[in-house]
Input
Amino acid sequence: MQILKNLYQIGGSLNGLSWAGGYRNYEDCNTYLLKGEGGCVLFDCGNGDTWPQLVDRMEYWGVSPEEVKACFLTHAHMDHTGAAHILADMGVELYAHEKTADALEAGDERCADYLYHKPTVPCRVTHRFAGTQVFNVCGIEITTMHCPGHTAGCTAYFFNLDGRRVVVSGDVIGTLMDGHFGWDGSFDFDRAAYLATLRKFSKEDTDIMLSGHGLVYFGRPRTRVEEAYCVALCEWRK
Ligand SMILES: [Zn+2]
Output
């Protein structure tokens, strides 16, 4: 599914782009493909079982898997990182916050394997970072923002494309029909950290928000973040 020139959604179980058995509607995250200079970048990579489907979708848009140079992971949950070991074996460079990298390299319950009833295949993260970092990959400048709460390592990625400011939000903000936030059952979920993240994120103006599940938002995504922040303030401080 094309979002902008050179930007595509190639996976996601909620809209049926990818599907691996139907055990959960949230079984597979939204995976995004960004074409750059001399190669492509992925944001997240699905639960692993759906990797052949993601390859099929990227080939539809004229990209071969060999052109993928990097994958930026939003957090360690298996529905977002299950194919990371496949990418690592292919020589794709993995980027993740150090807490996400720790979880993925340990392959422990921080990857939420208990939700998916299969073990995590650990793999090494090539580029681990903390705080705000700027990476230039395939000619695209990608800025990180640490957004802990849903997990300890959650990270949003910002970049500019075709005159728009785009953010990949992972599971920090869910985007169904209103602003809502990510699942709170993670081993490393932290409510106080999540509130601080929502407060910080709600000050960011973007043109397009690429969520971890559900809809891509084109219309003032900040309002969705503010709605999520409002709900969190009301519900989480009881
Ligand atoms: Zn998650």
Notes: The chain has a mean pLDDT of 93. Residues 75, 77, 150, 171, 182-183 surround zinc ion (CB under 6 Å). Residues 2-236 form a domain with the Metallo-beta-lactamase; Chain A fold (CATH 3.60.15.10).
